[in-house]
């Protein structure tokens, strides 16, 4: 996806190309290239997870769409939940039955095995357009950027579904891309401790809140976001260092908690041991995603929303200094109690006009009036 993955290609390669190359080598009396194999369609026990991407209108009235898929096979071996719980320092026996079930559901994709050299076709709703995604890489990822005729009744979303063979529609493998107008305001929002209570600074609480407890929305944030969504051309882009294995749970949370739907930009699929990213990995992921959104939508204005629990203030200040004309404001939800006059904020926002950055304190009942110009 556009959140740290390589930029999608603008062409659709023929999935038979590899087998043709291998065949030519054999005819020439040469040994086939080591590791060369034909891409294959998905097996019945393999799945494709499409993540919310973005789409942009083109000058000729078409749409340029980003499609991001992860292809994988679930592992159903007994004991995987217990092993992961031990690694995370959690005791399943001490959890309630509901919490154990939640843990099993949210960790399921961390047991999945990424599938390489798999192809899947995509059919757009309301359109005869059918395209073949590039073969998946070792990480199971397949990314494509393609220009299509705008499907009928396209307003905010382009919707599509995966197809693996003639007439075989995989309705459970559905995806969508947010149509982002040329102009308007885009809200780039962090997730953990910004719109969802996670307690990132306390490892045990973070793990329990991520895997065993119901997701809890940060007070008043959904109401404020819905108000922001009324601005002309407003769009939301949710940015997090959480891995894509948490995409289904986070998507459900955003919908059920009443936040405006938007594109999702998570880290790549990961393993148990890289579940919690290092500070530099998280920073690079967030900076890279923001820079891409700014480059892909050059006429839009941006509001950056995060929290004080991690490096959001520092990351957003760096972005602001590089793109002052593009950033309307920075809003930080205070979870550390440092206060606006703290040494951290004085150093972080030094030289940035005070009216361009805002703190949302725990007792705040109103969104900063100047946050959206």
TrEMBL record:
GO molecular function: phosphatidate phosphatase activity
Domain of life: Bacteria
Short name of one Pfam family: APP1_cat
Span of domain Phosphatidate phosphatase APP1 catalytic: 185-334
Name of the protein in question: Phosphatidate phosphatase APP1 catalytic domain-containing protein
Annotated organism of origin: Variovorax paradoxus
């Amino acid at each position: 996806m556009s959140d740290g993955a390589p930029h999608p290609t603008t062409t659709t390669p023929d999935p038979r190309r590899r087998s043709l190359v291998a065949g030519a080598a054999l005819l020439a009396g040469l040994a086939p290239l080591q590791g060369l194999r034909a891409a294959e369609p998905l097996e019945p026990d393999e799945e494709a997870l499409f993540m919310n991407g973005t789409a942009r209108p083109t000058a000729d009235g078409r749409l340029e769409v980003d499609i991001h898929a992860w292809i994988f096979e679930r592992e159903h071996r007994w004991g995987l939940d217990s092993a992961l719980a031990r690694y995370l320092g959690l005791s399943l026996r001490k959890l309630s039955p509901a919490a154990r079930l939640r843990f099993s559901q949210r960790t399921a994709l961390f047991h999945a095995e990424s599938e390489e050299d798999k192809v899947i076709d995509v059919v757009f709703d309301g359109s005869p357009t059918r395209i073949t995604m590039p073969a998946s890489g070792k990480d199971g990822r397949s990314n494509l950027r393609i220009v299509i005729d705008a499907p009928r009744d396209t307003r905010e979303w382009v919707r599509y579904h995966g197809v693996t063979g003639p007439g075989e529609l995989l309705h459970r493998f559905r995806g969508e891309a947010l149509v982002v107008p040329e102009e308007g305001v885009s809200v780039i929002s962090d997730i953990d401790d910004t719109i969802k209570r996670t307690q990132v600074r306390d490892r045990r609480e973070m793990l329990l809140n991520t895997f065993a407890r119901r997701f809890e929305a940060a007070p008043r944030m959904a109401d404020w976001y819905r108000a922001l969504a009324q601005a002309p051309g407003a769009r939301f882009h949710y940015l997090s260092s959480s891995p894509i294995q948490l995409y289904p749970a986070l998507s459900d949370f955003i919908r059920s908690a009443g936040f405006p739907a938007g594109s999702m930009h998570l880290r790549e699929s990961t393993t148990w041991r890289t579940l919690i990213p290092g500070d530099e990995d998280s920073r690079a992921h967030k900076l890279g995603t923001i820079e891409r959104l700014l480059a892909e939508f050059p006429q839009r204005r941006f509001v950056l929303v995060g929290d004080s629990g991690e490096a959001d203030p520092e990351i957003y200040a760096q972005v602001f200094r590089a793109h002052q004309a593009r950033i309307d404001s920075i809003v930080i939800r205070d979870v550390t109690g440092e206060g606006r006059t703290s040494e951290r904020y004085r150093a972080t926002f030094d030289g940035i006009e005070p009216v361009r950055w805002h703190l949302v304190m725990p007792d705040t009942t109103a969104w900063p009036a100047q946050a959206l110009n």
